[in-house]
Amino acid sequence: MTEITDNRKHIPLAIERFVLHWGEMGSQWGVNRSVSQIHALLLLSERPMTAEDVADTLGLARSNVSNSIKELIGWNLIRRVPVKGDRRDHFEAETDIWEVFLRIAAGRKEREIDPAIAVLKTCSAEAERDTAVSATARSRLKEMLGFIEMMDRFYTQMLTVPKPQIASALRLGAKVLNFLPSGRKKQA
Questions:
Q1: DSSP for 84-148, written as a single string
Q2: pLDDT at position 10, please?
Q3: Nearest alpha carbon to residue 141 among 110, 119, 166
Q4: Distances 118 to 15, 68, 108, 178 between C-alpha atoms, Å
Q5: In the prediction, which pLDDT does 5 show?
Q6: 18, 27, 90, 186: which has the fewest Cβ within 10 Å?
Q7: Is residue 160 exposed (0-12), middle (13-18) or buried (19+ Cβ within 10 Å)?
């Protein structure tokens, strides 16, 4: 693990590790490492931070921080907040982890799932009209489209379920299947 050192402001080791790990996770998910690190820092910050504070703490170029902040605002993960007596822009992260999760999920759905559904619909329709496309390929396109549409419907339905109920279902894990008619043991 690379440490955040040099001319940077000192941050506790636990926060440094989290910031570095969040940056790594972000890069695994296709998000710029700096964007993820800035999000992590703001997520754990006790107070709103200026872009200069962020740049100094993480040792990043001010221009990189500015662009990353714009991206985080676009994802609705951070917001500008006024600080009395200071004309500079200050930023804070959404700290409700459920909201963070939902906002990331909504952003990924909009950027990835919705376009995938549109392409699969087009490909499936074109495959049905094209005799050069094998029955196997047509079937697999339909199956993939059906699966992604089902997951999209599930996601949309889950948005209406109160967070405490979702949390309860998640805590149950696989036990939730016992509540389904096909999951119950048949009584003699």
A1: TTEEEEEEEE---HHHHHHHHHHHHIIIIIHHHHHHHHHHHHHHHH-TTS-HHHHHHHHHHHHHH
A2: 83
A3: 119
A4: 41, 29, 15, 35
A5: 46
A6: 186
A7: exposed
Q: Which residues contact 166 (CB under 8 A, 6 or more apart)?
A: 158
Q: How far, in Å, CA of 89 to CA of 42, rounded? A: 14
Which residue numbers in the chain have pLDDT < 50?
Answer: 2, 5, 187-188
Structure tokens at 53: 């504070």
The pLDDT of residue 188 is 46
Residues in CB range of 72: below 8 A, 6 or more apart: 35, 38, 39, 42, 78, 91, 93
Count how many residues are written for the chain.
188
